[in-house]
Amino acid sequence: MLLYLLDLAGIAVFAISGVLAAGRAGLDWLGVVVIASVTAVGGGTLRDLLLDRHPVFWIREVRYVYVILAATAAAIAWVHFFTLPEHALALADALGLALFAMTGAQVAEERRLPTLVVILIGTMTGAAGGLLRDVLTDRVPLLLSSGIYGSAAIAGIAAYLLLQAAGTPRRWAFHAGLLL
Amino acid sequence: MLLYLLDLAGIAVFAISGVLAAGRAGLDWLGVVVIASVTAVGGGTLRDLLLDRHPVFWIREVRYVYVILAATAAAIAWVHFFTLPEHALALADALGLALFAMTGAQVAEERRLPTLVVILIGTMTGAAGGLLRDVLTDRVPLLLSSGIYGSAAIAGIAAYLLLQAAGTPRRWAFHAGLLL
Amino acid sequence: MLLYLLDLAGIAVFAISGVLAAGRAGLDWLGVVVIASVTAVGGGTLRDLLLDRHPVFWIREVRYVYVILAATAAAIAWVHFFTLPEHALALADALGLALFAMTGAQVAEERRLPTLVVILIGTMTGAAGGLLRDVLTDRVPLLLSSGIYGSAAIAGIAAYLLLQAAGTPRRWAFHAGLLL
User: Fold this and answer.
1) What is the mean pLDDT of residues A98-115?
2) Which of A47, B114, C95, C171 has its CA 20 to 30 A from that of C84?
């Protein structure tokens, strides 16, 4: 249940970051939808393939796809009518990274994998969507140009392993907010 | 059977598009073969991994690999002896996209997945090979710079879902041709 | 056992090549660790996903992760204190490619796959890590700009298929050394 909510929040936030990046790159509406979708499902899909969880999360549960489309539409409308806060893309990226890093860590942890592997899978789950987005829109990946994002993911996963399941979501939102 | 023929046609066309893109990027013969192969198998491999179909299509059936090599050799020879029509790469890309989008949609549809998921998997299957090709040869992805290709895939899959299996191949070729 | 040692050597060498590439691109320490890890696990992970070998090698055996971290730390320290030989990156890349190409070929060969498929999987296993590294650090992939590396992988796999298991490791080291 927690995992489900984190996945939903993560894909919404990453879809928004995809819209912002695609808009900046001057893509048309379809390019925007493609980038938003790839960014949103990238991390969780990599997690599910690496851990052999089938069907992959957005194939098992169509609701995720609706969330992507809704978040994308909302972000396109928002960009159309309002000016964006300066760090909107970085904020969405960091929040999505933190949320997905946690889902990756949680799934890996349920399998009783060693701590280092949990951290690696969490980091990859959090980072993959944003990396795909940046490679496809031909930007230097945010994750790599600014170490703070990745550090946040690793710190967050470590915190999660300590806190285990109870009471984490609020701390995470807090944590992700702190980041910036 | 239909799926098999579509896969064969799709990888041949994508291998050719890979040769054209690699030639344009000034790669040597091995780079050309690598790009042609990756472009040709990329979409179908992603489809098979996402849907947990093992062995992956070109591992199960070596004939696909022969088709890639034959199409690559033919395209290299062709480029060597003739000048290319101006839109050759865009044409090959759109045709490959349409063919693979349909194989992806067909496989997803056989699993009785929800329509939106079928559309997403079809689009990804069609788009992945070309995106890999463009990222590796460091071009702005065709798919993203020109929305018409992706729209065609989505429209085509929607048409396919209406038409179901019967009589589709001819319509598809027609459709892909129309595109340009 | 042989496979295990080859995997260990391959990831150490690729982690080093990742450090060199990330240093050149001016990334901070975390970016360096991310690129080193992705380069190191990329090829073997692709191999395991394509062949449906689960759990993926570095998830099954945490020792691989320790090797990555140790090789990365050693390479960072080395770069800090010494000047690098001119072709260090190309050397690490070619050696990693040869080592991983052989693990890919070996696994595929154990499954009694057709020779062409063995060669393709070996090439992909060897090439994937370096391609990911170069795409993420936004360089023209070494593999593609200089055909000698890929040719070496293919030649090496062909040699391996002839030699089968016995006595190969030394020949491979020899082969990889020859390359340059």
Assistant:
1) 87
2) C171
